[in-house]
Design a protein that fits this description.
Layout lengths: L3 E5 L4 H12 L3 E6 L19 E5 L5 H11 L3 E4 L6 H6 L2 H24 L2 H6 L1 E7 L24 H20 L3 E6 L1 E3 L8 H10 L4 E4 L5 E6 H14 L5 E4 L4 E3 H15 L12 E4 L14 H7 L7 H14 L1 H6 L3 H11 L2
Helix pairs in contact: 1-8, 2-4, 4-6, 7-9, 9-11
Length: about 350
């Protein structure tokens, strides 16, 4: 396993959880993050003063900076989380998704390729470029359709998923054209600590705690496969250790739930875990709102390949993962307050109404 990893987007939700997980395994982390709205330095406060966590504020599109980090720290792997990742934002402003997810990934690949070619043969063979992507690139499933496999054709339906599909294709091309040892992972919906509250689980949780309406798109019957973030991080470690260059691995929780099931389960657990709340029963706060354009009906991920070939499967049940998630948010009010900037409030108001 890599002794030093360059992680991009390591102050965001999944990235920060991965960085903390890898530091617990004593791996040195060089963490490059632009600290846009979803990147939060408080996600990494446990690593304050840690000499083996080197944080650098910067953009994956800054090739001079990326080149310097690769040259100075000589990582054994690059793990790319850096991305714009919210469908609603991509509908509102697609350009930043194209620039970060496609153009930024291209620049990162180019610098990684130059660095990899400069390595001595032994280290060159062990180097990995792991690109973390999403199941949304596969499009939408009908109620009876089989789950997405690694061979499912791409059919993205939003600017976000289209930009991630484009980046996936670039990463694949750099393996087949240049030999860069890339691996792609496509994950299902993550939930857990440190998630910016534009996504369903933290949005509903934090609104419920404060007695605000719990917005549910459309009829609430859109289905997603839910994956606890710590399970995802463990899967990424396994892929780095055992994954085959040039391949793709789907990562999911084998846990299909409708949005309304998620919201009702969260409300029931919050009733139990915060009995002092004057807003219980929290499900009374549920409000259905107009559906967003191009809202994919169902995602489901077939994880049989990573289970069969690499020996990974999710450990958390949905209830155990959701309990851990709720407990973290209840115990980390300082973090919650830190992300309530004016920009955050304006965004929620714009998407869901005041």
């Amino acid at each position: 396993m890599s002794a030093t990893i360059l992680v991009t987007g390591g102050a965001g939700f999944i990235g920060s959880n991965f960085v903390l997980s890898e530091r617990s395994q004593k791996r040195c982390i060089v963490n490059l993050d632009l600290l846009t709205y979803a990147g939060n330095p408080l996600n990494l406060r446990e690593l304050n003063g840690d000499p083996d966590h080197i944080f650098v504020k910067g953009d994956i599109g800054d090739r001079r900076l990326v080149q310097k980090l690769l040259t100075d720290y000589q990582p054994d792997a690059v793990v790319n989380f850096a991305a714009e990742s919210h469908v609603d934002r991509s509908i509102d402003s697609p350009e930043s998704f194209i620039q970060t997810n496609i153009v930024g990934t291209y620049h990162l690949l180019e610098e990684a390729r130059a660095y990899w070619k400069s390595l001595p043969p032994g280290r060159r063979e062990g180097f990995r470029f792991l690109h973390v992507s999403t199941d949304e690139v596969y499009g939408s499933l009908g109620p009876a359709d089989p789950a997405f496999t690694e061979n499912t054709p791409y059919a993205p339906n939003s600017p976000y998923s289209a930009s991630k599909a484009g980046s996936d294709h670039l990463v694949r091309a750099y393996y087949h054209t240049f030999g860069l040892p890339t691996i792609i992972t496509n994950c299902s919906n993550n939930y857990g600590p440190r998630q910016f509250p534009e996504k369903l689980t933290p949005l509903i949780l934090l609104n419920a705690i404060e007695g605000k309406p719990l917005p549910v798109y459309g009829d609430g019957l859109n289905i997603r496969d839910w994956l606890y973030v710590a399970d995802h991080c463990e899967a990424l470690r396994v892929v780095l250790e055992k994954g085959k260059p040039g391949e793709t691995y789907n990562i999911g929780g084998s846990c299909e739930k409708t949005n309304i099931e998620i919201v009702e389960a969260l409300c029931a657990l919050l009733d139990e875990m915060a009995p002092e709340s004057r807003y219980a029963p929290h499900r009374s706060l549920i409000t259905f709102v107009k559906d967003r354009p191009g809202h994919d009906r169902r995602y489901a991920v077939d994880c049989s390949r990573i289970e069969r070939e690499l020996g990974w499967r999710a450990k958390e049940t949905f209830e155990s993962g959701l309990r851990k998630t709720i407990r973290w948010y209840l115990d980390n009010r300082e973090w919650v307050e830190s992300i309530k900037s004016g920009a955050y409030r304006d965004w929620i108001a714009k998407q869901y109404g005041r």
